[in-house]
Amino acid sequence: MSPTYITFFMTFLLGIMGLAFHRIHLLSALLCLEGMMLALFIALSFWSTQFEMLSYFSLPMFMLTFSACEASMGLALMVATTRTHGSDHLKNLNLLQC
């Protein structure tokens, strides 16, 4: 395995570990998700340049578009949650809590 693949894998794994272990604020969870999406975008861009085919060049752009839509939707949900609940703590977002 080349060092480039190891770097992409470790970046994605760091995002997963941040999402799993640092779950206090909604903003930190959204940043971990965004880091994972950017790692996938870079890996997909690198993969498409390896094959040097024109049909693979549009795939990273679709992923980047979906990542931007995911980030804007997450920030909108965070603003709405902060306005209704008063904070962005994930423990306050449990609707089943008495």
UniProtKB/TrEMBL annotation:
Q: Does the keyword Membrane apply?
A: yes
**Do you know which Pfam families this protein is assigned to?**
Oxidored_q2 (PF00420)
Q: Where in the cell is it found?
A: Mitochondrion inner membrane; Mitochondrion membrane
InterPro entries recorded for this chain?
Answer: NADH_UbQ_OxRdtase_chain4L/K (IPR001133), NUOK/Mnh_C1-like (IPR039428)
Q: Which reaction does it catalyse?
A: a ubiquinone + NADH + 5 H(+)(in) = a ubiquinol + NAD(+) + 4 H(+)(out)
What does the entry give for GO biological process? ATP synthesis coupled electron transport
EC numbers: 7.1.1.2
Keyword Glycosyltransferase tagged: no
Task: Indicate the transmembrane segments per the record.
Answer: 6-22, 29-47, 59-81
Q: Name one GO molecular function term.
A: NADH dehydrogenase (ubiquinone) activity
Q: Which UniProt keywords apply?
A: Electron transport, Membrane, Mitochondrion, Mitochondrion inner membrane, NAD, Respiratory chain, Translocase, Transmembrane, Transmembrane helix, Transport, Ubiquinone
Topological type in the membrane: Multi-pass membrane protein
**GO cellular component assignments:** mitochondrial inner membrane; NADH dehydrogenase complex; respiratory chain complex; transmembrane transporter complex
Function per UniProt: Core subunit of the mitochondrial membrane respiratory chain NADH dehydrogenase (Complex I) which catalyzes electron transfer from NADH through the respiratory chain, using ubiquinone as an electron acceptor. Part of the enzyme membrane arm which is embedded in the lipid bilayer and involved in proton translocation.
* UniProt record similarity statement: Belongs to the complex I subunit 4L family.
Which named protein is this?
NADH-ubiquinone oxidoreductase chain 4L
Write down the species.
Paradactylodon persicus (Persian mountain salamander)
